[in-house]
Amino acid sequence: MKFKYLSIALCAISLALLTGCSSEGEFRQSTGTSVALAGNNYKLIKEGVTGTSSGFKLLGIIPITSPTHAGAKASLYKSIGIPLTGKSIALANETEDRTRLYLILFSIPRITVTADVVEFIDMPGGANGAPK
Question: What pLDDT, on the 0 to 100 scale, is given for residue 16?
Answer without folding.
Answer: 55
